[in-house]
Design a protein that fits this description.
Elements lengths: L11 E8 L4 H12 L4 E7 L4 E6 L6 H10 L3 E3 L1
Antiparallel strand pairs: 1-3, 1-4, 2-3
Amino acid sequence: MSHCCSHGPVRSDITLNVAGMSCAHCKKAVETSVGVLPGVSKVEAIVDQGKVNVSFDPSKINLDDIKKAIEDAGYDVQE
């Protein structure tokens, strides 16, 4: 039986370079700030690499809003 039109939710996975994270508090602050956003299904901050991995539904939130949440938490998103 074919379900050609029954796709699961749309999801995008991105990795952002984030400066200023240096400890467990930084990790929690970034993950909490991004994790509460509507449409974000997963967020993982990797402090020692300066990376933040985010899975999100682009129909509910855009990349600029995710970046703003990180910046509002006190960290710099690098392009």
